[in-house]
Amino acid sequence: VQLQASGGGLVQPGGSLRLSCTASGFSLDPYGIAWFRRAPGKEREAVLCITEDADTTYYLDSVEGRFTISRDNAKNTVYLQMNRLKPEDTAVYYCTTAGHWGQGTQVTVSS
To answer: Of 102, 84, 87, 6, whose CA–CA distance to 40 is shortest?
Structure first.
């Protein structure tokens, strides 16, 4: 049973990245999935989540309108599309569901 987060990297301010969170060993179908992030020197914070019915809840006002979460149950994967990235979005991003956490993927927004 594993969650694999990927897609992070270095991007300039205003750029975009798409993170993926793929489950193995269990089906994501019945579960909501959330993305958290931990910025350097800060506590981990919830970013947004998607329900089993594909409804989105934002936990950070700063990402609403820039970040979009979606799911592809056929691929057992959830995506986090991040647009108009800002330096303050720099963090390790984690996905979590059903008591499992992915290993995190680093997103760095810098010129």
So the answer is: 87
Share of the chain above pLDDT 90, in %: 97
State the Cα–Cα distance between residues 111 and 107, nearest whole angstrom: 13
Distance CA 28, CA 2 (A): 11
| φ/ψ (deg, to 5) at 87 | -55, -35
Beta strand 91-97 pairing with 100-101: antiparallel
Q: Report the C-alpha gap between 84 and 86 in whole angstroms.
A: 7
Q: How far apart are CA 68 and CA 70, in angstroms?
A: 7
Count how many Cα atoms sit within 13 Å of the Cα of residue 89 in the half-sphere of its side chain. 31
Give the separation between CA 52 and CA 41, rounded to whole angstroms: 32
Tokens representing 63? Answer: 């990402």
In the chain, what are the helix, strand and coil shares in percent, each to the nearest 5? 10, 55, 40
**pLDDT at residue 1 is higher than 90:** no
Q: Could you tell me which of 104, 57, 62 has the C-alpha nearest to residue 85?
A: 62
